[in-house]
Amino acid sequence: MQVNFTKEDFETNFRGLLTDIELDEFFQKMDTVVDSDDIDEALTYFDTAIDAFGIEAIRDPEESSFGIALYVNRGDTYDCTILYDMKKESFEIGSWGDWFEKWESESK
């Protein structure tokens, strides 16, 4: 499991949304992921801490039963969020809209 961003990256994108203690707990949750329940727990922690709109799945348009990513819904396709890329097995910062556009271009 990888976390493809630093605490500094996180603070740049989400300044003031988490306390230092919450930020440390969130990174600890991401660093100790071993299965899908742990991924859900880490994303749910962030979702709850920032009072977002839940965890959403991004599915492959060609095979709708195949999930390709999970993300914390912040209300807009291009709002910066935390996303878990299932293929890369990594947590990332960015909008899910940008992530999906990149995924589509790389999948062709």
Along the chain, the helix and strand elements come as EHHHEEEEH
- Indicate the overall shape: globular
Low-confidence stretches: none
Biggest β-sheet strands, sense, barrel = 5 strands, mixed
Helix content: 40-55%
Please give the count of helices. Answer: 4
Number of domains: 1
Taking the alpha carbons of the first and last residues, their distance comes to: 26 Å
Tell me the β content: 25-35%
Oligomer: single chain
The SS-based structural class is alpha+beta
Q: How many E-type strands?
A: 5
Rg, Å, rounded: 13 Å
Q: Main sheet: which strands, in order across?
A: 1-5-4-3-2
Average pLDDT taken over every residue? 93
Give your account of this protein's structure:
With 108 residues, the chain is α+β, with helices and mostly antiparallel strands. It is built from four helices and five strands. Strands 1-5-4-3-2 form a five-stranded mixed beta sheet. Strand 4 and strand 5 form a beta hairpin. The longest helix has 14 residues. It is globular.
